[in-house]
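STRUCTURE:
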């Protein structure tokens, strides 16, 4: 499959990469339909960094995206506990919190000490054809 990689500042390359694996428990495989480009993407493109995060190896940008589900794990459910199905069109919340720490359990996933974002180094984003995402991040 094809994916756009930020290789270094001001250097994007369209590369062939392996297809994602089958989704594991709580995951879905999605086909990317659209990706928005925001200021943080532009900043990462121009400087190969965002805040204190330095991009040290090629990565796939894109944290604002919509998709179509093409495969689901048996227990794939959204945040409301509703089953996700192949063919559904979704938007994806790019912020991935652990959902188990004190902050998450108190309803403050934005303060999760182990959170990450799809499309922010070192986690690949959606400027690709397909990717695996957490089912509970699908809307």
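SEQUENCE:
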């Amino acid at each position: 499959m094809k994916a756009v990689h930020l290789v270094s500042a001001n250097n994007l390359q369209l590369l062939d990469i392996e297809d994602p694996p089958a989704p594991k428990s709580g995951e879905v495989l999605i086909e990317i339909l659209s990706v928005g480009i925001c200021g943080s993407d532009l900043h990462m493109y121009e400087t190969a960094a965002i805040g204190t995060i330095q991009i040290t190896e090629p990565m796939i940008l894109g944290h604002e995206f919509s998709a179509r589900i093409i495969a689901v794990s048996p227990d794939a459910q959204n945040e409301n506990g509703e089953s996700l199905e192949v063919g559904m069109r979704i938007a994806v919340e790019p912020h991935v919190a652990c959902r188990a720490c004190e902050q998450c359990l108190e309803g403050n996933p934005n303060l999760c000490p182990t959170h990450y974002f799809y499309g922010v180094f070192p986690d690949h984003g959606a400027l690709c054809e397909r990717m695996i995402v957490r089912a509970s991040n699908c809307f």
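REMARK: The helical segments are 39-47, 102-105.
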